[in-house]
Amino acid sequence: MALPSGNGNSISGPDPEVLIVGSGIAGIGAAQRLYQHGFRNLRILEATERSGGRIQTAHFAKGLVEIGAQWIHGPSKENPVFQLSSQYDLLDEEALSEENQQVEVGGHPTFPFTSYSSSGKVVDPELVESMTNFYNTLFDQSREFLQRDYDPAASVGAYIKNEIAHYAQEWAGDEISKKLKLAILNTLMKLECCISGTHSMDLVGLSPFGEYKILPGLDCVFPGGYESLIEQMLKSLPKDIVLLNKPVKTIHWKGCFRGQTPQERTFPVKVECDNGETFTADHVIVTVPLGYLKEHCNTFLHPPLPSNKVQAIRKMGFGTNDKIILEFEKPFWEPDCRLIKLIWEDESPFVDAEPDLQKVWFKKLIGFIVLEPPQQYGHVLCSFLAGNEAEFMETLTDAEIVTSLTEVFRRFTGNPKIPPPINILRTKWHSSMYTKGSYSYVAVGCSGDDIDTIAEPLPEGPTESKPLQVLFAGEATHRTFYSTTHGALLSGRREAERLICLQDVQCCKSNL
Ligand SMILES: Cc1cc2nc3c(=O)[nH]c(=O)nc-3n(C[C@H](O)[C@H](O)[C@H](O)COP(=O)(O)OP(=O)(O)OC[C@H]3O[C@@H](n4cnc5c(N)ncnc54)[C@H](O)[C@@H]3O)c2cc1C
């Protein structure tokens, strides 16, 4: 189904020049909303050779795999990515069913799994399940400190570890079984690092953890790839709206810049690209990732960003969650297995990981998801890896990764004959110069107010004669859905609405 093209709408008064920096879902979402409201002087400047940003689909083995976003988290009525994808007819029947939309998984969907231990044994699934339930209870509790005036710990990691230490005293059984329980809990904390996009849950603030809102619905994927959503969104906009290969170097604001032609009026904003090209505008919506902003916050704006914004950008967390995707000639896992969990028996939430990443980077892997069905994907496993270990993995060659992981598979299954994978694809989100990581989290010392500070438009204050010169969108600017595609989409629409309201107010004033 096509979305309203906006042709019926036209804005009264002069059509402002709007530039959007970044052609991810936030930037395209902002453009779509403005276009629907009649804005026609719109351009998106994108640094790379493609639109989509952290939504990126690739061909691998027999099918498609996701380099960036994998699932719609909480695919139900309140999720705008779910709504839009349903309108575009991009989801399968199961994802669209009422039943699927009502499932409450609390952020932790479960799959049929097999857990292997580092001594090459299958771990009792009942034990893994009971530890998972215990962990999920602690996780749910860690989200309840938002409105309390007292935090029992600074970080989510510290809180969960304190609780584990408390309950572990009552565990029955011998030392070996207690150690195994701790090792299982450690695997679950590593999974949490991937979900939060952080090196350690010790870095994630406890009291603001409850800001993030979990929507109902069992996470679903796009049969035609997540990027099919970006393609559909772009179809609702004029073809030439996105200018690719235009890395923005500096946004000059609070200025008085003459437009491209001699007779043109002046503009408060001028955007300068790496190649020296410039674009003037009334308004710029910045949607670059927080990782990029962190690295360039002193030079990206001129005059520079106000100090409260710089502080919030520096304090907020932005970490790495990478994927390693492997194709095998034949599966070594059971046909009904959807998830292979790896439990390192020597690990515990109370023991720091060895610092020599060369020796141990692969111990941070949480296991492997089986991409299903094999007729569609081939025999493909996908793993997630977060933090410093992921950043180290990005420096290795494909062959080095394949060698390490083949050893891991052989050791954990106790089968020394498992052949190496025939194909590998791994992501490098930390090294990607226009992203510098995967997604944001609210770090220790931060609060939801810091997210709002980052999102605050410039110039600050209501008295400016040229308001809303620089606006900020992107996943890291959404207080309750940060780190997600739906948070990013909503943030782009939010900033578009700001401009639409401004236009309405200015139009009313000029009609008085
Ligand atoms: C591995 C991984 C897995 C994920 N899994 C999920 C998931 O399952 N579900 C989910 O909801 N979310 C997931 N996410 C998060 C989700 O992908 C992002 O939150 C969302 O796509 C961000 O959109 P955005 O528009 O804010 O930013 P982006 O998509 O990053 O878009 C910003 C754009 O700005 C461009 N840019 C940067 N600097 C400049 C510059 N100087 N000049 C011009 N352009 C510039 C970039 O190239 C980019 O195209 C995942 C992300 C990753 C990396």
From TrEMBL:
PANTHER family, per the entry: FLAVIN MONOAMINE OXIDASE, PEROXISOMAL N(1)-ACETYL-SPERMINE_SPERMIDINE OXIDASE
Family: Belongs to the flavin monoamine oxidase family.
UniProt keywords, alphabetically: Cytoplasm, FAD, Flavoprotein, Oxidoreductase
One cellular component term from this protein's GO annotations in UniProt: cytoplasm
Record flagged with keyword rRNA-binding: no
Name of the molecule in the record: Peroxisomal N(1)-acetyl-spermine/spermidine oxidase
UniProt main location, coarse: cytoplasm
A GO BP annotation: spermidine catabolic process
GO function terms (MF aspect): polyamine oxidase activity
Localization, UniProt: Cytoplasm
Record domain Amine oxidase: where: 25-500
Organism: Geotrypetes seraphini
Co-factor(s): FAD
Pfam families, alphabetized: Amino_oxidase (PF01593)
